[in-house]
Amino acid sequence: MERLKHYIKKHFTSFSFFYAYLRSKILAAFIISVFVGFIDGLGLTMFVPLLQVVSGDESHQNIDIGRMQVVYEKIENLGIPLTLGNILILMLVFFSLKGLAFYINQVYIVILQQRFIRKVRLDLIHLLNQLRFKHFITSNVGRIQNTMSAEVERVSQGFQNYFKALQYAVMVFVYLGFAFVVDIQFALLVAFGGFLTNYLYKTIYRKTKGASRDLTRFNSIFQGQIIQHISHFKYLRSTGTTQTYAEKLEETIRKIEKSRKRLGVLGSISGAIREPLLVAVIVVVIFVQVRFLNGNLGAIIVSLLLFYRALMALTNMQNFWNKYLEVSGSIENVQHFKKELQENQEEKGKKQTNAFQKEIRLEHLSFSYGKTPILQDISLRIQRNQSVAFVGESGSGKTTLVNLISGLLEPNQGELLIDGVPLQELDKGSFQSQIGYVTQDPVIFNDSIYNNVTFWDAPLPENLARFQASIQQAALDRFIADLPDKENTALGHSGINLSGGQKQRISIARELYKNSRILILDEATSALDSETEDAIQKSIDALKGQFTLLIVAHRLSTIKNADQIIFLQKGRIADAGNFQALMKRQPQFKRMVELQEL
After folding, report:
1. What is the rounded distance in angstroms from the CA atom of residue 69 to the CA atom of residue 67?
2. Do residues 334 and 155 lie in contact, with contact meaning Cβ atoms separated by under 8 Å?
3. Of 302, 319, 343, which marks where a domain is finished?
4. Reading across the β-sheet that carries 372-383, which strands appear in turn?
């Protein structure tokens, strides 16, 4: 049993992967393939009575082709004598049906391929959306991007080649079935010839699979390097290090091209030896049947035709199988990636919370990355519509704390309650939909200002009014008014056409447009000039009492009017109170204020 499981796992892993998405729809393709081979076989058997008629012997009863005699008798029993005209018509009908069935089969495979890839993409997107944030931040971003884009495309090619290979394998068995009916000796020769050719292909298959895995790995590395090249382009150019980094890219490109070259050479070898092998086996089989097995003309002709079809199907199967192996590394990668996503899904409770009403309460909360403690024994209450600021030195745990409050991270110990309900019992999506988050690295999409702020809401009158209100609160109205295309101005990749302050304001405007109940500002004004910071600070102060404001700040001018300031030291709450209270009680906080000349 264990050996059987190992065999299935080794040889049918890809089939199980495809079947999981398409189920019984796959079986229809095999049924059509059997029909194609069966009809083609019937058409081929018509050559024997055709030759008999052409040679002047219309008594096909003398044809010695074993059990195939039954086929001709059945045709005549249907009232169709095997005359020249009827034989030609039957051949035309059989091969026309074969052509139609083959066409239907190919179109059906394309339809299955598109459906399969659509389901794979949607499945991966859904799993990625539910991935635990703690796992995401330690993941290889290049691999994620490469898998979700290029690798899925290669899986699409693999799907098509895999099922074409299986279709031809089915047709090989159909032709062999005819061969066993006609002449069992012929069938054994075909099987032996096929075994020999597969044995010769075995080494090519193994090397092709290894080259495919290498190509997948190097593509993932290259995607990660390109992401970093684009993200850090300004730094690389300004420091004259573009060439140094380019050398890393060139090294990876060389490895990719080496893997592609290996795949190309192996594919060429596979294609080059296919026809010589086919002809060699045909020559040997004909020689053996005529010289040693006393084969008669009719049996040899039908055997030759069936044998040729079987070997053609076999070589096509080998060709498509080798093409499948060229992308098998991508299929393995997508399978492993999917499994990794499944094993790291965020657990969600069932309770809905559509309106944050009273308070967020943290009770003895602790969090660590591996064995490194970040936050320890945090107990805190945040009342609805209260403004709370988190301050402290770098590394004190400010951003981690708001990530825990927003449900991005899960505590190792302690409990986080929303209106008295533990967060793990809530549907996090219903809670997080009430949160607006403005980070120190503004999120800008490659689209217009309007779509960035409204998150692609339709430009209806009520949405346009909300848009105008939000850009005024974020001090963006004058900037947009001076643009030629106004709110329809395209912002480029990651807002490359904007200054840091403009990015921050657009990000703030988006969260104001959402009308969130909880607004998290993580260094939201860090990239702003003094005048713009003052304008936005007035807007933030005006929001007091309307939103629950959670503010992470190094620039203490932004939190002077907060209802409560949480002062963090080394992952613990050192003190809490308003600005003036902390100035009196905490010398270190007072020193931070003095250094910033407040």
Report:
1. 5
2. yes
3. 343
4. 372-383, 359-369, 413-418, 421-422
Among candidate residues 543, 344, 589, the one with its CA nearest the CA of residue 438: 543
In the chain, how many H helices and how many E strands? 23, 10
Same domain, yes or no, for 307 and 390?
no
Is the distance from CB of 172 to CB of 310 less than 8 angstroms?
yes
- Do residues 336 and 366 share a domain? no
Instruction: For 55-64, write each residue's pLDDT tens digit.
Output: 665 544 444 4
Please report which helix (H) or strand (E) contains residue 34, including its range.
helix 25-45
What domain range includes position 557?
359-595
Torsion of CA 460, 461, 467, 473, to 10 degrees: -160
**Does residue 535 have a pLDDT over 70?**
no
For residue range 136-146, list pLDDT tens digits in order: 888 887 788 88
When divided into structural domains, the chain yields a total of 2
Structure tokens at 397: 């745990």
Are residue 284 and residue 394 in the same domain, yes or no?
A: no
Query: Which of 321, 305, 310 is closest to 37 using CA atoms?
Result: 310
Q: Which class for 310: exposed (0-12), middle (13-18), buried (19 or more C-beta within 10 A)?
A: buried
Q: Which residues contact 379 (CB under 8 A, 6 or more apart)?
A: 362, 363, 364, 365, 573
Hey, is 410 helix, strand or coil?
Answer: coil
Q: Nearest Cα to 86, choosing from 36, 46, 35, 39?
A: 46
Same domain, 318 and 396: no
Please write the tens of the pLDDT for every residue from 488-521: 988 877 777 787 778 888 888 888 888 778 888 8
Q: Report if residue 352 sits inside a domain.
A: no
CATH code (residue 50): 1.20.1560.10
* Domain edge (last residue) among 343, 374, 408: 343
Amino acid at residue number 267: G
DSSP character at residue 187: H
* pLDDT tens for each residue of 357-385: 888 999 999 998 878 888 999 999 999 88
CA 19/CA 116 separation, integer angstroms: 9
Instruction: Give me the residues paired with residue 381 across strands.
Output: 361
Query: Do 184 and 306 belong to one domain?
Result: yes
413: left (phi over 0), alpha (psi -120 to 50) or beta: beta
